[in-house]
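Subject: sequence -> structure tokens, single chain

Hey, anyone have a minute? Need the predicted structure for the following. Not urgent.
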Amino acid sequence: MSRHQYEYKQAMDSIHVTPEWEDQMINNLMNSSKEKAAHRAPRLGLAMVAAAACLTIGAGAAEATNGAVSELFAPLFGTAHTEIIDSIGYPVGVSDTAGGVKITADAIIGDANNICVIYTLEKEDGSGWDEVTDAGYLVFEDSTFDFHVDREEGNGWVAHGSSWFIDDDPADGVIQFVEQRTVDGGTPSGSAKETLKNLCVWDGEAQTTRVLAKGKWTLRFDLKFEDTTRQYPAGQAVDFLGAPGMVTDITVSPIAFRVAVDLDRTEFELQDDRRYLDGESEALDQLSVLLRLKDGRELDLGGSAGGSVSVGETSTEFVKSALFNEVIALEDMESIVVCGVEIPLR
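Reply:
Had a minute. Here:
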């Protein structure tokens, strides 16, 4: 695997398309339909679309205990707002072992449109990961994350997200693996199945990846969490890309956000084909969303968020959504700024 292939593999891991979705997209293209959706993975910045088949298998998440979930998520979220993490997340505790490595789904956190699962990787012999100088160089040769989504009958759904490795304490012999997904058109619930194959690391000297642990890990568990999503009044007029638009949805939780804008425009010419697949995904990237906190901080939510674009006959719906990089209490949020228009969150 070359460096380019390695980076592409990291970006495209865990993208899945159902046969029904693929058939629908082919029919749309054949019929020259203007309805389309474009999705970009946060952090990785590549266009992507994802959908997963519903599963009926699950292992049942354990009941949350005080401090358990926040401790498990500390490598990702730190130690702030542990009471929020413990109130909405659940420990999982499902493991599988292959190739001398034990992988455990530790805990899950989520809301109406998002899920985040944190895993740990440990060697069976208890030794450390001395051969891994940077957890960012790790990649699974193949990985899939399938989960059930509740949605209205007849409606489809799509998801965007990313996955990566963390080694917050190189001395403890444990590496964390994070899966994040944001769903548009449904709510993740029910059961999930994570399948991982062959843990690899990028070898800079050889300019290729090499296998650290050969094997296949399969973990099944329930998507169990407390939904604390809050929806705020929409309908605000905005100007985006030189056309009038309206904010149609503002949804926020302590771990994520979702903003939808309906724009009176249907044509979007591609300007930068080095970064984008089409004009719609390029336009989505320019939709600005800022979160202002009561402590004076201002967070750029739009820069790393994924989302979707649906082009209709006379208008286009843009959706930006993602998980935060930190847990934020709802009472600490002052306002959200969409396309320069400030909207109070109270």
